[in-house]
Amino acid sequence: MSGRDPNPGKTHVSRRLLLRSFVLASLASISRFASAATDENGELELFPIIHSDLRKVARRYRRKIVEFPAPEPPGTIVIDVDSRFLYLTLPGGRAYRYGIGVGRQGFEWSGIAYIRRKAKWPRWLPPKEMVARDHLAAQWADGMPGGPDNPLGARALYLYQGDIDTLYRIHGTSQPQSIGRAVSSGCIRLLNADVADLYEKVSIGAKVVVLPSSSIVDAESAPTHKRRMKASDR
Asked: Cβ contacts of residue 114 below 8 Å, gap of 6+?
């Protein structure tokens, strides 16, 4: 009985097909990785953004376009803290709607501000008040580098009133369980995937209207910030 392959040609073709399949699968994997490692403009993303987190929040808090007949012009951010929604107004009485996490009782803020700065994977510098009351924040009193464990997440939009930094941010989070809840120290948090989407849609100078809790008022008469602090590029 011979040990030779009775169909050497067929075996050679099978090996070639197997090798070809392996190469194609490897290329597809590389392509998926490259896509995941770049932002919407094709620029390198320093850390991966987990888009599957979108499926971990309640359906009502998932990003969508809704009817929103607001008096504000397109490109305005309107934040409804009671409903846990952030709206980015569009022409024709519509808006992008994002689910958010908001400030705990005692840390709420309402008023009008403007986006003066935007940052990707921002550095976090906790305010002195937070350092004094929070031992975890105290560990990063000199600043925490951007990254997946940074409280500001993948993106941050910095809210100013005139030249005064309000110290409030619209920022990302990798904790989907916090969306729809009052958990932060006053800032507005979105899923990293959502804040990255919002980041690309808003411009420096965009108006932000944070509606007072448990009431509806005309945006122009909303109260101003309760804590005026020194301007900062935090």
From this structure: 159, 160, 161, 205, 206, 207, 208
Give the tens place of pLDDT for each residue, 173-215. Answer: 989 999 999 887 678 999 999 999 999 999 999 999 999 887 4
Does 171 participate in catalysis according to the annotation? yes
Using only C-alpha atoms, what is the Rg of the chain?
24
The whole-model pTM stands at 0.73
Burial label for 50, CB within 10 Å (0-12, 13-18, 19+), is middle
- Alpha carbon 31 to its chain centroid, in Å, reads 24
Half-sphere exposure of 51 (CA within 13 A, CB side): 8
Contacting residues for 182 by C-beta, under 8 A, at least 6 apart: 101, 102, 103, 104, 105
What is the spatial distance between Cα 3 and Cα 31, in angstroms, rounded to a whole number? 42
Q: What is the pLDDT of residues 84-136, one digit of tens each?
A: 999 999 999 999 999 999 987 545 678 999 999 999 999 988 878 888 888 88
Q: Which of 51, 135, 187, 225 is catalytic?
A: 187
- The rounded distance, in Å, linking the Cα atoms of 209 and 129 is 25
Report all structural domains of the chain as residue ranges with CATH numbers, in order of start: 52-221 (2.40.440.10)
Tokens of 153: 């997440």
Is residue 110 within 8 A of residue 90, CB to CB? The reply is no
Beta strands in 64-213 (DSSP E): 64-67, 77-80, 85-90, 94-99, 102-103, 111-120, 155-161, 164-173, 182-184, 188-191, 207-211
